[in-house]
Automatic annotation (TrEMBL):
Annotated pathway: Cell wall biogenesis; peptidoglycan biosynthesis
Domain of life: Bacteria
One Gene Ontology term, aspect cellular component: extracellular region
Keywords: Cell shape, Cell wall biogenesis/degradation, Peptidoglycan synthesis, Signal, Transferase
Leader sequence segment: 1-17
Transferase is among the record's keywords: yes
SUPFAM superfamilies with a match to the protein in the record: L,D-transpeptidase catalytic domain-like (SSF141523)
A Pfam cross-reference name: YkuD
InterPro entries (alphabetical): LD-transpeptidase, LD_TPept_cat_dom, Transpep_catalytic_dom
Lineage, top ranks: Bacteria, Bacillati, Actinomycetota, Actinomycetes, Mycobacteriales
A biological process term (GO) from this entry: peptidoglycan-protein cross-linking
Name of the featured protein: L,D-transpeptidase catalytic domain
Presence of the UniProt keyword Transferase in the record: yes
Domain L,D-TPase catalytic, residue spans: 50-156
Amino acid sequence: MVGLVAAGLVVAAPAQAEPLWPGGPDIPGVPAIIPPPPPAPVVAPCDASARMCMRLSTNEAWLMEDGRVTYGPTPISHGRPGYETPPGTFRVAFKREDHWSTLHHVPMKWAVFFNGDIATHIGPIEEQSHGCIRMTPEGAETTFHHLSPGDVVQVVV
């Protein structure tokens, strides 16, 4: 401690105040001197031509517009062993708000078909499928409204 001893008194030099947080003010209520950096943009691992991007290794999907992510990542699940969802670039063939799978006898709400009988739709994302992309209700509905027949869907590993 730096100080001066005079007549038995110790006088300390003023301490330098540390900011409350990095780039924050020295005094509560005073705005930060250095503004925080903007959040990093979300980047999807697909081409700019894709309107939907899905990564199987991380069970994530993104909706895109001109190469920029507009929604996501949103959680997905995909095909189990023996029924793998193939990677590739596909086009949306058709979509149905309330589809019924005659192959598996289950409802496929907000179905968007992009590779034969493979579609995105609501389903339990905790379980793998017979090749379809299962999504949360919010993710499936948002995907359904975002995509149109002919749009590019990319599936990457």
